[in-house]
Amino acid sequence: MARKKIVFVIVEGPSDDEALGVILNRLYDRNAVHVEITHGDITSDLSVTQGNIAAKIGNILRGYAKSNHYKSADFQQVIHLIDMDGAYIPEVAVVEDKEAEKPFYTTTEIRTAKPDQIILRNKRKSENINRICSINKVWGTVPYNAYYMSSNLDHVLYNKLNSTDDDKENDAYAFAKKYKDHLDDFLTFISDSDFSVYDDFRESWEYIKTEKHSLERHTNLGICFKEIRQKRKECSW
Question: How many whole angstroms separate alpha carbon 153 and alpha carbon 129?
Answer without folding.
Answer: 16
